[in-house]
Amino acid sequence: MEHEPPLVRDVFPELVAELVELLREEGEHWLSICVWDVRMVGECGCGDGFCQSIRTAEHTPGQPYGPGHRCLPLLPATGDLILDVVDGRIMYIEILGRPPMRRGGGGRREGGAVQQLDLPA
Known about the structure:
Layout: H1 8-11, H2 13-25, H3 29-34, E1 42-43, E2 54-55, E3 69-73, E4 80-86, E5 89-96, E6 108-110, E7 113-115
Antiparallel strand pairs: 1-2, 2-5, 3-4, 4-5, 6-7
């Protein structure tokens, strides 16, 4: 049996709580519910220090999402949060220009430090 990626809410609970609030403010009630169940398929992997973006679904990098795609910029207090949504499914959470996120219970703790998860880039 293949291991499922962790829920974003388990890895970054503060991020998901913020997303729920911002989505509600934007009138995106359905997405504010859906964001609780998105999985962390991988990190962006671009290597830019200002980027902490998360892939929440499999998608070929550099390829357009196609029909049903919409880009949903949110209005956080700091930095940028932008969602790529396809047919009501959150595919990508773009996280730019924000302080480093603290990992919640989804990270592995060793010697008091939270370690990176073994996720595909």
